[in-house]
Recover the amino acids of this structure.
């Protein structure tokens, strides 16, 4: 039984990291209806930029601040040169544009900072420690803590600030938001900047676990089942979806895996998502489409 | 045209084209005087919404464009401004079909209206109470998700939201749509009160000619992208053609304008 909980909690902690990547997707999708294929590239770009500045000898917090500024600047440029010219185009066009953007970001990141695998040390050792006879990774706890803090801050931002309110308004009805004078461009820039922040945190956490390299942009693929499970429009869904995926893939690996010869961790989440899609296509917390005459 | 008050909004012979090819407004001119309620009447598809959106500049978000003519607000050209600029100037549109933010509460909906304001929380809080004063029902439902409120409550929310922008002029598109007659009366009574007490001018698009002409000072009748008739509301109410085609009353008894052949209608007005 102890072993079961050990696996479960380990899975939940890993799941928080999936939530983090999924969150970036959800915010952009909510505010602009764009499925942002470039979210993974943003994670890679942020991590590369951060490591690059660290290697230039900047102290940790300075590198963090500079990278954050770079991510904000990118958000503004993306709004200005990618989203604004494509306003009113069908969603598929915007989706294609984000595919282009992801190649641009990956190329740019690797061009500027090189493409070799770099270690990223954020000062938290991945040491095991014991609670109640169960062994956990210290790093996992730290990562989960960071993610939880970020999510809490975002929830406050969305619910308690004027800009957060404008963001939610735009997510609900672009036209009406325009009619009350909310400038869409501003809101989109803010959303991409926040997605950049989320990508930075995800990039640091994932990067220090996997090393900073191209495959970092693939963690975004892990967000897909999370999104299907949690719904594309729900922040709570992204969080819970990530936890479920994290926990279930680890449990499946340990307890069902042996019957399949192992390594089911890689495809189990997609199976789960697929099954879920058949039962509840709007996701666990996806916003109900309110219909009213 | 004899209308009291200095002109607040002047639309001068505008032409509107959607998608670069669809010509919808073919030279529309109208004036809204300071403190007036002006009705823009006409059947479905006549171009009322397009006219309002040309003013609020929501047109551009629909790939529509004013290709001729000019629009002036307080003597200043506003054709090139963004909706955000216009709201700051005090011109706010209440869209057809209410367009409440469904997943926001009624109160949050109202507060989004204050997005562009810079005069501080206290002023916004005061205006929120003012809106609750006019629409006590919204106060009861302030914590409800707007998507789950009734059509009447949504219309009130949409108007209240516009009021929180502290507007000088509201472009109100079909407030009566889909509402029971009693509720329509209630909403128009409040519009009238807002006009008198809060000094908000209205440009009101309506298919419900009867109600609109009772509350408006002046009216324009739009058909197929052109103004075919305009005049004091009183005069329009007594006009035989208006009675026949828009009020559904004529000397020969009740009749819908749909029953009459289109060419005949046009001919009589253009003659
Ligand atoms: N976005 C649009 N693109 C193309 N045509 C449009 C668009 N919006 C409205 N129209 C057309 O313009 C005409 C006038 O529409 P509208 O202004 O909505 O009329 P009303 O509000 O009087 O019902 C209609 O024929 C309608 O089909
Ligand atoms: Mg209309």
């Amino acid at each position: 039984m102890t072993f079961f909980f050990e696996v479960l909690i380990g899975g939940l902690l890993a799941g928080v990291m999936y939530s983090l990547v999924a969150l970036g997707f959800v915010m952009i999708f909510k505010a602009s209806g764009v499925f942002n294929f470039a979210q993974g590239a943003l994670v890679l770009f942020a991590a590369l930029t951060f490591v690059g500045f660290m290697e230039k000898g900047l102290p940790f917090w300075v590198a963090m601040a500079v990278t954050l500024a770079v991510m904000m600047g990118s958000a503004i440029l993306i709004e200005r040169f990618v989203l604004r010219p494509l306003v009113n185009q069908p969603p598929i066009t915007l989706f294609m544009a984000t595919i282009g953007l992801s190649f641009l970001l990956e190329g740019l990141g690797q061009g500027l900072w090189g493409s070799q695998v770099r270690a990223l040390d954020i000062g938290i050792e991945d040491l095991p420690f014991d609670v109640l006879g169960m062994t956990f990774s210290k790093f996992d706890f730290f990562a989960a803590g960071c993610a939880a803090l970020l999510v809490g801050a975002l929830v406050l931002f969305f619910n308690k600030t004027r800009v957060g309110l404008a963001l939610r308004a735009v997510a609900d009805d672009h036209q009406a938001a325009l009619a009350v004078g909310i400038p869409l461009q501003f809101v989109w820039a803010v959303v991409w900047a926040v997605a950049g922040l989320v990508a930075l945190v995800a990039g640091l956490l994932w990067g220090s676990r996997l090393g900073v390299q191209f495959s970092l942009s693939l963690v975004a693929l892990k967000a897909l089942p999370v999104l299907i499970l949690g719904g594309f429009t729900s922040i709570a869904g992204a969080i819970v979806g990530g936890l479920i995926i994290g926990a279930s893939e680890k449990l499946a690996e340990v307890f069902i895996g042996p019957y399949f010869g192992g390594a089911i961790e890689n495809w189990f989440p997609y199976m789960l998502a697929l099954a879920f899609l058949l039962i509840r296509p709007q996701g666990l917390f996806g916003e109900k489409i309110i219909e009213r005459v | 045209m004899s209308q009291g008050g200095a002109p607040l909004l002047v639309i001068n012979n505008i032409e509107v084209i959607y998608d670069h090819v669809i010509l919808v407004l073919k030279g529309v001119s109208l004036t809204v005087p300071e403190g007036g309620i002006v009705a823009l009447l006409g059947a479905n598809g006549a171009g009322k919404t397009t006219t309002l959106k040309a003013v609020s500049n929501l047109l551009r978000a629909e790939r529509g464009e004013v290709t001729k003519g000019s629009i002036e607000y307080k003597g200043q050209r506003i054709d090139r401004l963004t909706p955000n600029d216009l709201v700051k100037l005090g011109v706010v549109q209440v869209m057809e079909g209410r367009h409440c933010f469904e997943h926001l509460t009624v109160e949050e909906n109202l507060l989004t209206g204050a997005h562009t304001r810079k005069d501080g929380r206290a002023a916004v809080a005061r205006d929120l109470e003012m809106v609750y004063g006019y629409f006590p029902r919204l106060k009861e439902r302030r914590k409800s998700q707007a998507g789950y409120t009734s059509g009447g409550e949504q219309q009130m929310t949409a108007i209240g939201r516009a009021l929180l922008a502290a507007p000088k002029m509201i472009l109100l598109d079909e407030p009566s749509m889909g509402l029971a007659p009693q509720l329509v009366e209630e909403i128009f009574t409040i519009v009238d009160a807002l006009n008198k007490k809060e000094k908000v001018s209205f440009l009101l698009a309506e298919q419900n000619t009867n109600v609109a002409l009772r509350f408006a000072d002046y009216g324009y009748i739009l058909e197929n992208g052109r103004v075919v008739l305009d005049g004091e509301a009183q005069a329009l109410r007594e006009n035989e053609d208006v009675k026949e085609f828009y009020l559904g009353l004529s000397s020969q008894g009740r009749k819908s304008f749909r029953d009459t052949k289109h060419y005949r209608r046009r001919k009589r007005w253009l003659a």
Summary: The radius of gyration of chain B is 18 Å. The interface with chain A takes residues 56, 58, 61-63, 82-84, 86-88, 92-95, 99-104, 108, 111-113, 115-116, 145, 147-148, 151, 161-162, 165, 178 of chain B (CB under 8 Å).
